[in-house]
């Protein structure tokens, strides 16, 4: 019995009131209270207060549990709330989906959505501008003529930073006129000009660009049709004053045969 | 019935009693119990499995009560329009009677003192459990409990002037 020797403290008295006194202290506290009537009176009073509070609240403790506090009911409330949340999230997703699909469906032709496509659109604009500038040029449609093809190839390859060979479009009736170097937004771009026997011209515009690959994008601006795509490190654009259906096989042939 | 439901429902009478003693209003007490149980259900798997369920529940309830108290301090007390008593001539028979209800005396104690008298004296929590609920060391619980009981008695004796005593 370790504690038997230590004097009585306030914590002993509180534990006495709460009935939590270790058995070995009980006799000591009893003896102390017997010798200290004032403390004893206080402890007795506090014991009575404790009891009064318990009695006052005993009725509440005895009450049956209200239905709303049943765990099963609380759980189904929570499940309902969750389901409600889930349902509104689903509704939001559906409306978002409708909005996106509708927006896509209604989007104006040629308006590009994301950043990559924006730069592509700029590239396409460069290509069709270059086409329109030089298609009417009679005296100097090209800088280096096709008759000096070996020189043209080395020169364009050197200036555009990538090895390239002009595609052969004779199957479509187009003959290579020659090429020129143009500013292409950062890098130098090369324009290869072709002409058919009626004098209709077609330009292949290319620029060393991203290594990504994209699908064909069609654009028409002021009667100039262009197909634009990215492949094998080149941005490609084929522009001519023909309609989409006529230009598509040419673009496909260039895509398949180039490089 | 799940283990969780069984174990929680076993504590509901004690939780309702504690809540009622804190709030002295049956409806608000059950609201508090409901909040406490909902939180306990949602955090059932986050509780320490070796921990004490009663102490855990009383801690949740006490924290909810304290934060609700802070909220009503900011917003002012809520009075239901239907139950509000209109000012009239005050009843005279209360003079000299400081406390009609022992819970009213309890209400004049501080939050910690009130909780200690209830948790230790009524809910029979151990001093260690009460210390965990209040968030203080056991030694502090003992000395606060002693002061709380003395103050409680002096309020019942009407020795300290009641805080809301009418001045004539």
Automatic annotation (TrEMBL), chain A:
It comes from the Bacteria. Keywords: Membrane, Transmembrane, Transmembrane helix. The keyword Membrane applies. The chain crosses the membrane at residues 85-106. The keyword Membrane applies. This is Anti-sigma factor family protein. It comes from Rhizobium lemnae. The lineage of its organism: Bacteria, Pseudomonadati, Pseudomonadota, Alphaproteobacteria, Hyphomicrobiales.
UniProtKB/TrEMBL annotation, chain B:
Residues 9-61 form the PhyR sigma2 domain. SUPFAM superfamilies: Sigma2 domain of RNA polymerase sigma factors, Sigma3 and sigma4 domains of RNA polymerase sigma factors. Residues 101-151 form the RNA polymerase sigma factor 70 region 4 type domain. Pfam families: PhyR_sigma2, Sigma70_r4_2. Gene3D superfamilies: 1.10.1740.10, Winged helix-like DNA-binding domain superfamily/Winged helix DNA-binding domain. Keywords: Sigma factor, Transcription, Transcription regulation. It comes from the Bacteria. Belongs to the sigma-70 factor family. ECF subfamily. NCBIfam families: sigma70-ECF. PANTHER family: RNA POLYMERASE ECF-TYPE SIGMA FACTO, RNA POLYMERASE SIGMA FACTOR RFAY-RELATED. This is Sigma-70 family RNA polymerase sigma factor. It comes from Rhizobium lemnae.
